[in-house]
Structures
1.
Amino acid sequence: MSSKQTNLLQGTLDLLILKALGPGELHGLGISRRIEQITRGTFLVKPGSLFPALHRMEEAGWLSSFWGESENNRRAKFYRLTKAGKSQLQVETEQWTRVAVAMTNALTAT
Amino acid sequence: MMKLWSRIKSTARNLFHKQQVETQLDDEIRACVDMMTHERIAAGMSPSEARRTALAEFGGVEQVKQAVRGHRAGVALERLWQDVHYGLRQLWRNAGFTVTVILTLALSIGANTAIFSIVNALMLKSLPYPHPERMGTIYTRVTGVRSWDERHKVTYEQWALLRDNVPALTSAVSSSRTSGVNLEAGSHVQYLQAGRISAHYLDVLGIQPALGRNFSDVEDRSHGPNAAILSYSLWRNTFGSDPNVLGHAVLLKGAPYTIIGILPEGTSTPLNAGIYTALQLGPEGEGGGTNSEAITRLRDGATWQEADAEINRAWSHRAHRYELDDDPSAQVTYHSVPLQKGETATLRPQVLALMLAAGFILLIACANLAGLTLVRVLRRSPEFATRLALGASRWQIQKQLWIENLLLAFLGGMAGITVGFVALRGLLQLLPEHFLPVATVPLDGRVLAFTLFISLLTSVLFGMFPALAMRKFRLRSAIASHSATGGDPLHLRQALIVSEVALTVVLLAASGLLIRTLIHLQTLPAGFDPAGVIIAKASLDDEQYHNAATFRKLLSQSTSSMRQIPGVQSAAVGLSLPYERALLNGVTISDGRAAGQHGMTDEVYVTPDYFAALQIAVLTGRSFTDADGPDTQHVAIINQTFARKYFHGADAVGHYINNDTRIVGVVEDVPIAPGLDATAPLAGEETMYIPAAQADAQLLALVHVFFQPSWIVRAAAPVEGLTAQMQRALASADPNLPFSGFYNMRDLMAKTLAMQRVEVALLGTMAALALLLSTIGIFALVANIVAQKTREIGIRIALGSSIRQAMVHVGAPGVRASTLGLILGLILCAGALRAMRSALYGVGVYDVPTILTVMLVLASVTIIATVVPTLRIAGTNPASTLREE
């Protein structure tokens, strides 16, 4: 895998995590499942990518975490968006939309 | 902003609460795996199957954890810390190596720190006055038969023109140095150093008195009212910080002086005196000659170009242009020079030479350390091979090596600062008082920055070779054998030894020449007998001793009381002594072949016993007697140089000089600090002695401002309590006249040769240090060859080689390197030592005894450094060395 692709995927992964946490708090596995669901199975996020990303984003101040009870009464680490995370979601959404429209236009141009 | 803060917080947490962060990561991942397992059980899998597939989907718990750790904030810092930690452990495990390196660095960096702090204090640090860049002094540039460009002292005429006709500058003058005076305040009598300064002197320095005021123009006028300004320390120590002393009079030089000001705490002037009086320069007497130092401050809005133009205009139209005396066709111009440069000009070449020598020491140390670290890297080949085989990158190993070098340099630098501090204190102790024109030599930020810089520089210099060696590191051969870098490092190490020995030879030869110079000066034919002579000095810069009769009475009473002391053979007084600088005066030859010839001579007034007390031989004619009084025929005794110069070896006795003075004797030359032609620190020079009883009031008033006469006592054997008895004898003639100190002739010589002694001590220390480092270098080289070749030596001995042959075989590379270094060093000397010519007296630049001594010294240390490590071979047992591997 070339480094170019990694960067692209990493940027995408951040946006997907932010988006997945938009409605409310989730634990790691929940985030993974939710991304799978909202991308209709296109992206399967492996733990090896997910957890480093979560820790990195928490250190950047976009996410905050707390320990809570899962749906089947297990202790789990939950993540939610901070204020900075919410504005980051907005910024990245706008950026992505611009890129997506531009790319679509470019690829459909005759 | 927010993001940065969050990262700093996380970095701190990751570094300082590592355990907690790890436990939480553990818990989080276990919970995730548990949940995945649970999902599968809920979907109907067996628990063990569920766990297996969950783990498979998760993709390796440890890898995930490692991935998280790899992205943590502060991970680079943590890795660096791990490397440092590992490096420290390595250094700890090789304590011998580490101590050698740190000691070498401590000595070499310490030497550099000490010398640099002097360079810093003299040349880099600003003068401790406001706007030092606006302060200057004036250089005279003469182009003609003899060209020169230096600070020259000025006459009253020059000073008056400078003050009145150079509006671009605030100017002031002062005496060129302080002189000892007696201060009486109440019942307290004290001898201290007084400086004489003109009006506006303190304005030029930008110093405002803490109490009172500066000298006014009225007080500075010739024969103006007597006023004094106290230094802060004198005010505190003698006057108990009493502010009411202002306006009161103290008895200074036997006359009342009104205290008009007190300098602020912590201020110093270039004169650095205890008390200041007004210079009161006039066109006659002192002001008629070049006796004063000028300092200037650029006025607001003026430029140095304007100032220089004004000085040249003002000084070019003087009645007496003494600069043209020797060469009327010479071109004379004047220019301003920054005050700091003017004040330190005489010391600059010496200090820079020392800095160069210190630089040599650093290079020698680096060459040694490069050799040591190279060997150490080779010894660690197996370790690096293992690390490379386990997947470490070459960059990681390089990084590790550099980190260890930096650690060593850092530790060495810290030790170097300590050594430098101690060395600097010792050095300043060694210097005579007021030797440096600065009050303090601090170890300030700039010095510390310099030390840090050279520490980094050394680590780069000595780390470079091992790092280069690592690049050629071959994994395959390293694993196969125990040592394996491409190429033979022996040649590289030999080259390092050659260069350090070469530098050592230069330093040894340079200090050898200085030692020879000092020996030459110290063993000049004395012309008198210094053994058993005790000197005491007192200041006669005192109103009452301007009277010739009072002066005569003091001398005759005090010397006759001193002669009464049991054990004393003779007692006399003289204005100046051998080894000292003497009064310069004009002389005219009145008759004979040289009639009408005018020149300068040293002039010394003496009491009749002077030549007996010092045992200066009277060659022809007679000595002075008590019959040579103020009202009899004026007489003089001249020395041989004087007789040779003006009477060409013919008998001078009976001839007249200065119209009415009859020469009655000729005496042996004695070495003095020459004032006429200062080409050497000590030399014989034309001197004329006159009886103290015939010195007139005008001469007495003038000379005692500059000179403190000496009481000379000769005793056959040491006399118990002699100094106290001498003081009592003086007190019997004048109870308020303290001696400033007691000396022997050796002290006087040491004072005159202070510069040479300091040069020898400093450069000698550096040369010794260089020699020590080179010896260690050769020793390490040979010792290492012995260690590496144990097996080979074993085979050689087993095959019938004698132990001596084996020793020669192993020691040869050390001897070869040292010999090559010696040859290279001698070639370097041929060029480098010529720069020393101006510091050498009585010895040539290419001095055979010096060079032979250097070769001999180097040969001996080379032999010791190669033989000692090879002695181990003698104890080698071939059988056991062959079994070893």
2.
Amino acid sequence: MKILILGAGAVGGYWGARLHQSGADVTFLLREKRAEKVRREGLVVKSAKGDAVLPVKVVTKGSEGGPYDVVVLACKAYDLDSAIASIAPAVTEATTIVPMLNGHAHFATLDARFGAERVAGGLARISGMLGPNGEILHSGASGVSFGERDGKPARPALAALEAASKKAGIDGGVNANINQDLWDKWIMLGSIASMCSAMRGNVGDIMETEDGAALMAEILEECRKVAASEGHAPSEKVLAGIKSGLTQKGSKNVASILGDLEKGGPVESRQVVGDMLARARKAGIAAPNLRFAYAHLQAYEARRARGGLGQPTK
Amino acid sequence: MKILILGAGAIGGYVGGRLQQSGADVTFLVRPARHAALARDGLVIKSTKGDITQKAKTVASGSEGGPYDIVLRTCKAYDLDSAIEAVAPALGPDTTIVPLLNGYRHLDTLDARFGVGRVVGGLARMGVAMSEKGEILHTSPFAAISFGERGGKTARPGLIELDAAVKKAGIDGGLNGRIEQDLWDKWIMLCTLASTCCLMRGTEGDILEADEGTAIMLETVEECRKVAAAAGNDPGEKGMANVRSYLTQKGSRFAASMLHDLEKGSMVEADHVVGDMIARAKKAGVATPNLRLAYAHLQVYLARRARGGIGKPAM
């Protein structure tokens, strides 16, 4: 089985590195600059599960090295359009696309471009970030979850991807209920991304304030109601797990979007927060906290667009 | 008339400097480091109304050089407690304290410590900051202070004299017969701007670019207006129309100075400007969902600052 992974960030890079180490046929589709660096220096992983410098296969065009059985999309949601253009030549009738993007908005775009039958559901629970030198700094979880969105048994390509991932020491694999898993992750992410952004602190900082725990619980409830309105309410157990994770005193837990904000980078505002708010509105669900978080992110984007970040405000 | 100015920071330095320049008897009560800098460099003001460098009379303790007729307090609200004790020895039986602070809570504190009869209302309106070298940089076309008796009483002689000195010094404003309304008007504006600029981490113009930015701005100012109204100081329709139009200027690069402090990692007047507005709202039964989020944002900032996490990577 030939696997193409678009992106070598924390998710694609870590997963692909472990697949490569365990003997899978993996190719990375990267932008020129990143491709050159990885070709020159190898793919560098720093992880409690083992450091590695790997001479991985790299292409800069989807037309190279194919055809591929599986194309994993491991880009940020705001890069979806350019990602689609890049992978299009790599996709044949027999290819399965596994997007690992946050939120739900990307499915409509991918289905329209490639046909829903080629697009599986997928999500990552890999914590990490890119270091200053492009190295993958992996910390904590290393799980993936993917499956058929209509709940049917997984097609052979997904079963093969699961086998390869298990061999590579990656947790998770085929999930028969991937849509529910996507919603479960989104309500967690929508809550923590909103709060860490709008409050500019980690979970522990937020819990230090008078109303912090209440605000976190409220926004989680807003997201839960949206999921329920779409037929994907989380189980009580899942919800309790999310809630306890999001309201732990002293927790250093933080959404990666805050790192992006503080670096002045692009953020998945629309996909993670704006789309949740839009769905709440459509379903007639009051979402005052999501509303503020989205306004915060939009004000950030406006300031970024005019070159006002890092500049004194007076 | 002897005037003691507590601190020679941006506002205190500007007001004191202009008063002294026009011949008033002004003394600055300063900390040792500032005393040394003033002795070395003089009081330096760079201003749209003309630059000056002049010697400043300073004392290190309120017990020196007094008693004073007027004490002007221009410290930040979070320094008020330490400032109160520093100034106590400077007060004689006829001293009037004129605080030029934002918000309202300091008046309760000062009343409790010195007696309501000694404390009048006051505020400053000027664009002024202190440079790293300790120069006072005044950038706005105006530089106003406003002060007066609370409760609409007739101004005491000390205030009338201060008014004359202020006018002679070319400082705008002066004695105000409705100082409490003025304090509320300024607080409504300040609390709204500080809350929205900090919570959104952007200028007025950045906030107004968000889909809901204008609505959020107007809701927030309405929360503050209701609190003022509950205290008997509703700015009225005309006053509010001005505030609203000022707060909704698309493309405005204006931001609350609190955002500037936040981005420098400095202390902020969170409790004084926003927290106290919420406390008064609760007492009056006014709902303040927007202020609540802004205050939470400021408290998160202070928690992160306290653990040394400002300016460090979030992850």
3.
Amino acid sequence: MISLSDAGKQFSARGKTLRALEPLTLDVAGQEFIALVGPSGCGKSTILNLIAGLLRPSEGTVKYDGVVVTRPNVRVGYITQKDTLLPWRNVQDNVGLALELKIRRTSRAAAAARVAAMIDLVGLKGFERHYPSELSGGMRKRAALARTLIYEPETLLMDEPFGALDAQLRLLMMDELQRLTQARRITVVFVTHDLGEAIALADRVVIMSARPGRIRRIREISIPRPRDIFKLRFTAEFAQLYEELWNELKDEVVKGTDV
Amino acid sequence: MQRSTFLWQVAFGIGLLGAWYACGLVFGVAWISSPVLVARKLAAWLMTGSIYLHVMTTLTEMVVGLIIGVVLGVLCGLLLGMSRLVATVLRPIIFAIYSVPLISLAPLLIMIFGIDMLPKIVLVATVVFFLVLFNTMKGVEMVDPDMVDVLKLMGARWHESFWKVLLPGCMVWILSGVKVALPYALVAATVGEMMAARRGLGMLLSDSGQKFDVTAIYALLLILTVLGLLVAETGTWVEGSLLRWRRKHA
């Protein structure tokens, strides 16, 4: 479905070249949930930008569904850490944004129905007319998720989507994400620096090395679905996986935080 | 506002008028006039209706100039903000023109466009244009590129991103530019009229000056003050109603 082959990226700024991503090869299967974990600055976000077609690789190729990605990929939805809700639109107008576009033109009545259903799905009923500035962090995340899911992208790219939320809310959102992506059979590429989050959600966890990013380890997570996000953390299976992967990750975290 | 604060403000206003009146008595009303004379003058103007023509002239120059200046300023600001090439080419010229005190263009404009409303409208439009231009360019620069990216991935065409993200995204900056421009528009219209005109508050002002009619000057300044306040209030109201989503910020 998604395949990066020797795809790397370097930026040049003021005559200096900065390598964001070492050439890297990675395949993501359709409907797979893959989590990329690594210290900050290891190029995780660059990978998402390459898949989204917002960046072009400096070398190698990025293919989506067998075709080389050369322009913004309209079959993916992208959710960043900073939510990019439009502050001048209320929740329902933000959620319905994609349906106003020509490429996804929907009749007004059909759009309203889908918006209402989507708002209900993410638990924002009663807040349709609130502006983003009037919502809590978790609600904004839900609104951003609804705005992306409404146009039914095949693939969801998520860049530390729950980074800014508190621990309880994060678990709730993880649970919701699992429910939504399983029900709709969406492919997810999920970037995080939280190993526990990655193990709880993903089919495969990719451990990245510190800058410049390389793949250090890929681990299958065979915990059966649906997973109980809230209790999973206390199981022996989880603890064992966590320890195993943490041993890989911790050297990189130390290296990555030299600053 | 607290009631006692308001009373203090009223007391201060009355005190000021009293002091003005007293100064007139002591030093002679020829130079200082007096609140009574000014009130009489205003009443006479309003009764005969002779002042309306001048007020309307100044307001028309201001409003027409504002509309032209804002429209052109926003259009050019968007163009310059979005195209680095155009901005680089035009930047030196724009800054060169802007560094001239724009009011000093008035004699030239009067020579070219005559002494009726047109040169004042052009002057107002020029002053407003630059203020709105710079703010709009800044606004385009401040639009979150991530929002534009999100729209791209949704499959938005260029014009869809423009109408849905770019323009509303700079609206805060455009409106604050317009708000700053409002008092300057009144200044430009009045100054233009003071140089050469047949009608308008600025013309009356310079005319009264030449006739040493101090009372008329004060009365005109009072009218200009009221106009200035009204214009500023209208600006604040328009901004507030267009940016309702923003007022609710915690």
